[in-house]
Amino acid sequence: MARTDPAEGRRERRKAATRRALADAALRLFLEHGYDGVTVTQIADAADVSIATLFKHVPDGKQALIFDDGSERREALLAAVRDRPPGRSALDALHDRLAARGPFARELPPDLRRRRDLIMGTPELAGYQRRLWLRAEAPLAEALAADAGRAEPAPADRALARYVLETPELAAGAPDPRAALREIFDRLESGWAAPDRPA
Question: Read out DSSP for the chain?
Answer without folding.
Answer: -PPPPHHHHHHHHHHHHHHHHHHHHHHHHHHHH-GGG--HHHHHHHHT--HHHHHHH-TT-GGGTTS--SHHHHHHHHHHHHTPPTT--HHHHHHHHHHTSGGG-S---HHHHHHHHHHHT-HHHHHHHHHHHHTTHHHHHHHHHHHTT-SS--HHHHHHHHHHHHHHHHHHTSSSHHHHHHHHHHHHHH--PPPPPP-
